[in-house]
Amino acid sequence: GVKYDPAQVPEGTLLYVSHCAVCHGVPGVDPGGNVRNLGYVSAEEISNLEAFVFNGAFVSQGMPDFSGKLTREQVGKIRAFIQGTADAIRPR
Question: Which of 5, 12, 60, 80 places its Cα 20 to 30 Å from the Cα of 72?
Fold first, then answer.
């Protein structure tokens, strides 16, 4: 997985719920809508979260561009939530 600070998970959870969960669902709770549950994406995708969140990389597929809406620090906290949840729900 991706290294993260567990202290960032609580705020990352709030950010994820308010910006991501409507499309991606909550990892470990539901599978999301028409979009993959982020609890099951690869470590590489979690590491490169900014590439998906900023600059509209997937706008044509319905992913909003969060430039100016989220900071890199906030995306880091969302990453902590995603990886922390992935660690909890994936089989070992």
Answer: 60
**Burial class (CB within 10 angstroms; exposed 0-12, middle 13-18, buried 19+) of 81:** buried
The rounded mean pLDDT for the chain is 87
Give the span between the Cα atoms of 16 and 53, in whole angstroms: 12
**pTM given for the model:** 0.87
Site of tokens 């982020």? 38
CA torsion 54-45-58-82 (nearest 10°) is: -70
For the segment 1-28, the average pLDDT, to the nearest whole number, is 89
Q: How buried is residue 16: exposed, middle or buried, by Cβ count under 10 Å (0-12/13-18/19+)?
A: buried
| Alpha-carbon distances of 35 from 3, 22, 62, 67, 73, rounded to whole Å | 24, 10, 9, 20, 24
Query: Which residues face 67 on adjacent strands?
Result: 70
Contact call for residues 59 and 48 (beta carbons, < 8 A)? no
